[in-house]
Amino acid sequence: MRVLVAGATGYIGSRLVPRLVDAGHTVRCLARDPGKLRDQPWAGDVEVVRGDVLDRASLDPAMAGVDVVHYLVHSLASRGFAATDRRAAATVAAAAADAGVRRLVYLGGLHPPATAGLSDHLASRTEVGRIFLDGPVPAVVLQAGVVIGSGSASFEMLRYLTERLPVSVTPRWVHTRTQPIAIRDVLAYLVAATTLPDEPNRTFDIGGPEVLTYADMMRGYARVAGLPRRVIAPVPLLTPWLSAQWVNLVTPVPRSIAVPLIESLEHEAVCTEDDLRDLLPGPVDPTPYERAVELALARMRDGEVESHWSAASPAGAPSDPLPSDPSWSGGSVRVDERSVRCDVPPERLWRVVEGIGGQNGWYSFPLAWAVRGWADRLAGGVGLRRGRRDPARLHLGEALDWWRVEAIEPGRLLRLRAEMKVPGSAWLELSVTPDGDGSVYGQRAVFVPRGLTGQVYWWMLWPFHGVIFGGMARNIIRTAAR
Predict the structure, then answer these.
(1) CATH superfamily of 328-481
(2) Which numeric CATH code is attached to 2-305?
(3) Whole-prediction pTM value?
(4) 288-320 pLDDT per residue, tens
(5) Is 24 exposed, middle or buried (0-12, 13-18, 19+ CB in 10 A)?
């Protein structure tokens, strides 16, 4: 089959692509910025085309000759996401029909049979599925609940809440029933949906073998992780909005994502049928919940997390790529630039540069970085706790604490773009240049202020630049010299 994957840079999509290739399919990936897929280990096995699900003109050539389209796009964290998703789904459905596509495959959300009163998040995913089902191209709409896998937003929220809170004061949604599913099973069902016999045009519920409450899931996680039994005290007065503020502070999941996730947990998410398994060519053995947790923790422990929830960014997000030099703005650009010659071989210096952030920290004034991270979380931003997916390697487009990797030239240059709440746009660029028996370490912090607030912000922090940026340069070189 010739398959187009829309959403190949996201958590599910970037894992699905290599499995489709392994299944013998010819895969084409649609991406707004193809460069974000450059460092994927499977990049050489697929075709990558530039396109946007909101841009019909870019979809026509992308769908030419395609048999099946996997649609794995959801603009959860952006304002007005329901309208954006509605327009994108309608655009994709029309383009698929005109291109002669034989099947659409969509991963939606598991929800109660009655759709009235659903959260905005679930209602939007349900609406997208309905648009595809009502369109001219047969659609397979898989509906999943909480996905358990290393790097998923749902799993990260569960993990941090359980690990950091031995005693939890919880809202009523922790006692709502759900049917969690392992990421490996989700991917297996998606691959199978590509070649289902006949032309089904319907929804299929998919889930794991157990029906659990969120409290059951927290206790199960604690057992697998070797933690003491968690005490969970229900407080019905806690609203989803209040719960999201707490999740924003305790976990790496920012408020913009926590709110719709928690609102969706208010609804029971239990499979009402298991018809898909009857259509599969071979037997399927769903992964038990605690086994899924074991697999996720093992992946994290071994540094083999394939993808992370923070990797994808919606259209218009601050992480979208900009020209390499911010002077494009035509306004004032504030720069702190430093260059230091050292006797450290360039390859050793680069290892420290590429390993920056996450558990390794930022090599200067840790308290200042921590305070700024907490302030960003309180303002609804991403903060510092997104960490890094791999302890030693960075890839184009992935998240690194409150930054996004905007450019990386191995051994030479790393450019990060800030995603924290800030009155303007900010970059941090680190470079390594060979120089005889040593290296020249380059460091450039760039800020494009927005209005008077941005100017005041820069000058308020200016007295600390020597400590923060000067200390960073000295400590990176000192670490590399050890």
Answers:
(1) START domain (3.30.530.20)
(2) 3.40.50.720
(3) 0.72
(4) 999 999 998 888 777 666 665 555 544 334 433
(5) exposed
